[in-house]
Input
Amino acid sequence: MHKAIGIDLGGTKINGGIIDSNGEVLKRVEMETGKEGPKEVLGKISHIIDSLLMEDDDILGIGIGSPGFIDNVRGKVLSFGGNISDWQGFDIKCGQFGCAEQYISGTAIERRYKKLTGVYRSCKHIFCESSGIANKVVDEFVDNLAIFLCTLKNFFDPEAIVIGGGLINSKDCWWEKMINRFHDYVNDSSSISIVPAKYLNNAGMIGAGKMVFDR
Output
């Protein structure tokens, strides 16, 4: 059976795995993305690939998925930023303001909680915490995600939007509220479905591997 390596580059973590042609994950490696810039990220991707090849070198190819549109000519990843006027943005490396990643990601939740409390907590702990501040942070995340989904719907008018990434593993804490908020904000929700990724946080990695088989 053919096998490929799939790499899912996320804002918080880089997931890599050996994927077979049926979409099964045979081996999985995970590393923190880091905050030192492209050189660090590329080094970690290389390390993940090397470690997977040490497990199995009978690999057909390598696919990489990235959060944003990839400009192969200029060697840049273009994020979906500056699209909602109320989002003032943060000083981040992409050079844009209002980037969705800064509001609807695990990193965003952790940063917002720390700003309000002065204490760092992981997303997992924030979702489990029952304090007023934790509830406020999660509610802001839900609201921002609902607004962003409305923006995507208005821009592209897709039949469905599939949500994956690390936060999807904790969807029991926020999914229903987010869907209700989306229905409150969007002008017509009858023509679109919002669904969680079937393979949860493995979806990006499996999709990256599938690109190899579809070539």
